[in-house]
Amino acid sequence: MRCCWLLLFLALPLQADTLIDQQLPDFYQQLLPQRSYPLSWQPEHFNDIQHWRAQGRAALREALLWPDEPVEFAATLLKTEQRDGYSAQLWSVQLTKQSRVQLMLLQPDTAKPAPAVLLLHDHGARFDIGKEKWIQPFATDERLPSAQQWAAKYFSSNFVGDALAKQGYLVLAADTFGWSDRGPVEFNAQQALAGNMFMLGRSLAGMAAYEDLRLLQYLKQLPQADSSRLAVLGFSMGAFRAWQLAALTDDIKAGVAIAWLNSYRHLITPGNNILKGQSAFYMLHPGLAAKLDIPDIAALAAPKAMLFINGGKDKLMPSAGVDYAYAQLATVWQAHGAADKLTTTLYPHYGHEFNAEQQQQVFNWLAAQLALRD
């Protein structure tokens, strides 16, 4: 009887797809903790906020499924281009045992160590550019038109990395595996890659997170960087990576996350990207959602300075989930006695973007947190 039912199910693909779209979100919702996540901050369960943070951070680090394997960076300068008040440099760096990557560094024309910003790029379903989404490519780079199109679509035609360099920041951006010089690895290939990593006891999300840790370590050890004034800034998938990185390490003084924050209950809904596999695997750590909700993970960044920005019309991030996440973050920063270090902003009329108005908010906030000096 079961076999006959299965054959009938497979013979009706359209009806089956509809059935799956309707049933799977409910099925997944039932797998989530029904009342509270075991490692969520709850004063009645955790007497010490620092102990809670240590437990949560240990759970996050374990979920990466990626061992700490430091290697020599062995950096090699490939190309330079002088710009207005700073230079653009292309470097080749050994990031992990498996990955030698190219990264862009924008260095202000000053002899003193500068506050530094690590930029983490989005997914965006566009793979010919990665670091170029943040930093203007070299004048002779064939990816320049694509980068300009991306900047026009999401960033009010601005290259945010170059704007930061003009303000006096040392700026670093690299490609996540699958983009630009490390791609293209598109949707079906992403799913296949993630599946094979799971077979080997690793994860695509863990690889991305560990590489972000290594990027920050590389930035920190640069003599032209003021290691006491390091920041991370990300948009969309890069925002997820930004608050995740801030949760994993104390090397960051300030973090900014634009257009990626919610809760699992609000994301596990019909049609949401998190249920589709493919690009979602860059943000799915096996088993972690049974212990910590999304805002719980982001809150592990407390009590450092963090700025979260979202748009009320962002179809990828339901505003009810954003509101819930903001409230959860506030309880943790308050428990640390650091409520003034958390800034959360929901722009009701904006969508999935990082526009000029939002950029100015970020520039002002970073200058205040990193005490940017002329």
Map the helices and strands.
Elements: H1 2-11, H2 13-31, H3 49-63, E1 76-83, E2 86-94, E3 100-108, E4 114-120, H4 144-154, H5 160-166, E5 170-174, H6 187-199, H7 204-221, E6 225-235, H8 237-248, E7 254-258, H9 264-267, H10 294-299, E8 305-311, H11 319-335, E9 342-347, H12 356-369
Parallel strand pairs: 4-5, 4-6, 6-7, 7-8, 8-9
Antiparallel strand pairs: 1-2, 2-3, 3-5
Helix pairs in contact: 7-8
Task: Output the keywords.
single chain, 374 residues, alpha/beta, Rossmann fold, 9 strands
Which stretches are poorly predicted, pLDDT < 50 over at least 5 residues? 1-17
| Largest sheet: spatial strand order | 1-2-3-5-4-6-7-8-9
Sheet of most strands: 9 strands, mixed
Number of domains: 2
Number of E-state strands: 9
Span between termini: 76 Å
Mean pLDDT: 92
State the fourth-level CATH superfamily of the largest domain: Alpha/Beta hydrolase fold, catalytic domain
Helix/strand-derived category reads: alpha/beta
Overall geometry comes to globular
Rg calculated over all Cα atoms: 21 Å
SSE ordering? HHHEEEEHHEHHEHEHHEHEH
**CATH topology term of the largest domain:** Rossmann fold
Strand content: 15-25%
The helix count comes to 12
In the CATH hierarchy, what is the class of the largest domain?
Answer: Alpha Beta
CATH architecture verdict of the largest domain: 3-Layer(aba) Sandwich
Measured as a percent range, the helix fraction is: 25-40%
